């Protein structure tokens, strides 16, 4: 009942709005009361275990109930992920036109007088930033600066010394023209040792033809 119904009811709302902590606590208390009280309203049940432990996976000794707060952020992060992976969808085009017309979701600002939906999605952006990276295609039209394309999903920040020299260049300018490989001479000529080594250790997979943002776990599979 809790998993299939009670936790499913707010799914639509939590995929759009970031719920206040007080509301999340109230929902979890009601579910906790239902679990320990077996649905009775006349008698109070005994709370044998805190909700955080009940929310742990069964293999870790819990009941596998969803942590509403974490689930809320995950669903909002999924909306941000769709802005990146489905840029031609109607909702992605509307939000881009309103909040990041000249950039991407990962580089967008909260903006002036934002809607509560946008503020909610932005609260979960850190999840996408931590889990996403670029998969480099043959054309490699990804900007060198401020994009998550290095080995571990890191980026070359625009505040490093000499960044202005490559501010208008894409990473294909760091690659050999007729083959999908790094031009080591150019890379080491432009960047310091640490950044150059990071670039040169970033795999270029010949089977990937198109630049696209992927999840880091997917990247691990591609590199095998």
Mean pLDDT: 86
Shape by Cα distribution: elongated
**What is the tally of beta strands?**
2
The overall number of domains is 2
Query: What is the first-to-last residue Cα distance?
Result: 41 Å
Q: What does the largest sheet look like?
A: 2 strands, antiparallel
The number of helices is: 11
- For the largest beta sheet, what order do the strands appear in spatially? 1-2
Structure class: mainly alpha
Could you tell me the radius of gyration in angstroms?
23 Å
Order of helices and strands: HHHHHHHHEHHEH
Helix content: 40-55%
Uncertain residue segments: none
Strand content: under 5%
Description:
The chain has 224 residues and is mainly α. Helix content is 43%, strand content 4%. It has helices at 2-6, 11-14, 21-37, 51-54, 68-85, 90-99, 116-123, 125-131, 184-190, 193-200, 216-223, and strands at residues 132-135, 212-215. A two-stranded antiparallel ribbon has the order 1-2. Helix 5 packs across helix 7 (116-123), helix 5 packs across helix 8 (125-131) and helix 9 runs antiparallel to helix 10. The two termini are 41 Å apart.
């Amino acid at each position: 009942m809790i998993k299939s119904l009670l936790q499913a009811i707010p799914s639509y709302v939590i995929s759009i709005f970031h719920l206040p902590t007080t509301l999340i606590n109230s929902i979890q208390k009601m579910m906790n009361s239902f679990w320990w009280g077996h649905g009775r309203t006349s008698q109070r049940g005994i709370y044998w275990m805190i909700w955080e432990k009940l929310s742990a996976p069964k293999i870790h000794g819990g009941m596998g109930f969803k942590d509403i707060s974490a689930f809320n952020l995950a669903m909002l992060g999924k909306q941000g992920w769709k802005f990146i992976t489905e840029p031609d969808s109607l909702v992605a085009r509307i939000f881009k036109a309103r909040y990041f017309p000249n950039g991407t979701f990962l580089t967008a600002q909260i903006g002036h007088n934002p809607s509560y939906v946008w503020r909610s999605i932005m609260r979960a952006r850190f999840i996408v930033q931590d889990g996403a990276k670029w998969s480099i295609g043959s054309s490699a039209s990804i900007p060198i600066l401020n994009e998550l394309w290095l080995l571990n999903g890191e980026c070359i920040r625009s505040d490093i010394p000499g960044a202005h020299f490559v501010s208008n260049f894409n990473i294909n300018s760091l690659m050999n023209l007729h083959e999908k490989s790094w031009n080591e001479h150019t890379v080491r000529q432009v960047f310091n040792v640490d950044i150059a080594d990071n670039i040169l250790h970033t795999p270029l997979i010949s089977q990937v033809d198109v630049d696209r943002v992927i999840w880091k776990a997917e990247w691990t599979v591609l590199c095998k």
